[in-house]
């Protein structure tokens, strides 16, 4: 049903594009300035990375964040206006997992022959991991019938992945805007250094921690982060799961792990209800267990950006929470 609705939307957009511009889009493969450069990103990390890379040229660039209303990647439905922006932009950046299946049809509506398309999963290639159903985790009903591998889309939650992705985005921006390439390269070098410094802080925090296991009474999108630092985890649901209610068996298993490992924290995601976490804690025998939240950046909006949110600031806050959860 979702694909049928989207196909109908694309037909409508095609008609609008043809009537509005006669099927003839302005395209400039030899662009020498960023004044008319248009970049469309699906999620906040991509958006913030581009801002950091273009620096002082950001004011001259049309930079769009599509998922700007608090809806996360897994339930996003593009509007006709979104598809038009994608069709006309110079650079389109998206994640590329199962949640982005709509992109394939949207890309066919292109009116810019010189557009560059960047899929985060494609850039990372073999380092992308399959979605994992960890011990005790609630399985989705349809998983038993699935034969194709489902990949974990939350690649941006690894600082090491972010370094690779930012360099790739910088290289593509330099291709599109030769005049700005020196600035972009310098900004990227500075930003990669900041990412690397924060990565070292994560390593130090994990090395000094009393524990090495995280427990989420929620979905778990932090697979890449825990793998970077050799941490173990338990969670109610996989990162891309649509499930919202945990079974008695899942609750009992996670409560048992709280007791067995002497955990003092049950984690949740930003904006999530704490019902499952609270039930885990009330089921466990351990006494002083608190609930803390880590931010997966799946619902960050431009309003948050105006309030000062950046990729680095959110990852710094996550480090603070992680350190508390491991001690």
List keywords for this structure.
single chain; 327 residues; alpha/beta; 4-stranded parallel sheet; two-stranded parallel ribbon; 12 helices; 8 strands; disordered N terminus
How are the secondary structure elements laid out?
Layout lengths: L1 H20 L16 E4 L2 H11 L7 E4 L14 H9 L2 E4 L7 H6 L8 E4 H5 L34 H18 L4 H28 L4 E8 L2 H6 L3 E7 L9 H14 L3 E5 L5 H9 L6 E5 L7 H5 L4 H15 L2
Parallel strand pairs: 1-2, 1-3, 3-4, 5-6, 7-8
Helix pairs in contact: 1-3, 2-6, 6-7, 7-12, 9-10
Describe it.
By secondary structure, this protein is α/β, with parallel strands linked by helices. The chain contains 12 helices and 8 strands. It has helices at 2-21, 44-54, 80-88, 102-107, 120-124, 159-176, 181-208, 223-228, 248-261, 275-283, 302-306, 311-325; strands spanning 38-41, 62-65, 91-94, 116-119, 213-220, 232-238, 265-269, 290-294. The strands form 3 sheets. A 4-stranded parallel β-sheet has the order 2-1-3-4, with helices on both faces. The protein has a two-stranded parallel sheet with strand order 5-6. A two-stranded parallel sheet has the order 7-8. α10 (275-283) links the parallel β7 (265-269) and β8. α1 (2-21) packs across α3, α2 crosses α6 and α6 (159-176) runs antiparallel to α7. It is globular. Residues 1-30 have low confidence and may be disordered.
